[in-house]
Predict the 3D structure of the following.
Amino acid sequence: MGADFTTDQKRYLEGFVSGAKAVQIARSAPAPAVAPVAEMTGPDAASHRAMARFEAEGRKLTPEEKAKREELGLDAYDRMRAAAREGVFPKGPDLLRWKYHGLFHVAPAQDSYMCRMRIPGGILTHWQFRGVADIAERHGGGYTDITTRANLQIREIAATDGIAVLEGLVALGLTAKGSGADNIRNVTGTPTAGIDPQELIDTRPLASGWHHYILNSRDMYGLPRKFNVAFDGAGTIGALEDTNDIGFQAVEVMDGFGVDGGVWLRLVLGGITGHKDFARDTGIVVRPDEAVEVAAAIVRAFIDTGDRTDRKKARLKYVLDSMGFDGFLKLVEDKLGRPFTRLAAAAVMPRPEPDRLAHLGVHPQKQAGLNYVGVATPVGRMNAAQMRGLADISARSGDGDIRLTVWQNLLISGVADADIAAVTDAVEALGLTTKATPLQAGIVACTGAKGCRFAAADTKGTARAILAHCEERVALDGPVNIHVTGCHNSCAQHYIGDIGLIGARVPVNDDGDTVDGYHILVGGGFGSAAAIARELYQYVPADDAPAVVERLLKSWKAHRTPGETFAQFTRRLDPDALKALAAAA
């Protein structure tokens, strides 16, 4: 390469020629008449080779891929600091690059940043929790949101304050790196890990190990699209691992099947419920101490094979659909340098079922005399004063940990029997509750139109309205999950709810005026009851949604068979029959 080329141009040309050679060899065509170039090296080589391969095939890279090749977001920190000094938000490709550090410019919904953190397994200390409250009050809107990946977000951050937020988090021992854009998102695990009487394994070391591996391996940032990984220890509260690209499920393997008996991790792949697919069992089991290595090999195989020309088809599911599980897993085995351990389903004991109400209320831990207390945060939102109050309760009466869940609430662990009443009273004094009503336990909402430019409706407002309306009118005796999401990105996973709502603009006149509204789906599920919900109503105005949900719940109570869950009831009836019963409720 001549001196007239920049380093980035050299990398591009090297990758392009390598890709062209690979394609022509595969087609039994003669190699191009070019001077030999050195094989690309370094942590960005695999992703650049993948880009070049698509281009050599005559396919056009997405603008996001071109932006990543020009400058990976990890390398943009100097320019981010300069932008903060100037008080300006990113534009163009920099919108993507800033997300590599956890900063999202969410205009026009809010002309400000949102910062999303990385909290492996959703567990942080009381002082970290209090510190986040301080940052949110000093640099944001004075509140945080718990996400459906057991994480925290700070909103309403000024252009001048983004760097202060990021560096403040690092000072607390937290980080936001890689929490957005085409990266491996927050690592989830069982929220009761280490304290759960039912669990097969403590997932905290697994989630933490994978978290630190991601942070310290630059090639883990060369993905064509976002990626989710979860560890489920078979505890009382599920981690929704079957909705992830990679799910590790703790299972008990019996003796007599050619491997040592005991606790292994079953590998499931390809979950993306927004695209109507759950992670599927591969028949593979992994020793817990191999999980990080296996996850890394899977991600590297995805970097090599994921689509870089169509964002809608760039997730792992579509690689598996195209190559088949066996073809993809052979690539992963090549990365590992050894074959996987495969076991028949008969070798694995049935997994204990989670309790869908166990993330609220008081529950005994495996440690005698201690309990965890599940606290309901209305659709995940807490103000800074509430956060400090919860931190004080954890420090004073618990073990000092705050445990976030994928259900947008939190647990205070290590509460002695004698302190339960004082803790629940202190939570109530903060304007929160520990009461485990089926509706409160099952309602989930994404950010919605007040904080996300993609959303078609105020999801958090609608979720609160449904909860307030139905709690007064319908006495439920079993769990019902209601998931309210604003758009097809499905951050609140509307397809797995007993009732799912997805935002839609509802026309109200011939002039093209619209109001917030939803399409409403029923019959979704997860875990052993996994199913994709089907659409029942279209274009329901947001103001009417609470009454529609009420009628659906009442029709279930009036017409169910003994022991029939809401999901089973809605799956048994055809849509017309279900709507007729609801209309009469």
User: Anything to note?
Assistant: Residues 5-37 have pLDDT under 50 and may be disordered. The two ends are 75 Å apart (CA to CA). The longest strand covers residues 499-507.
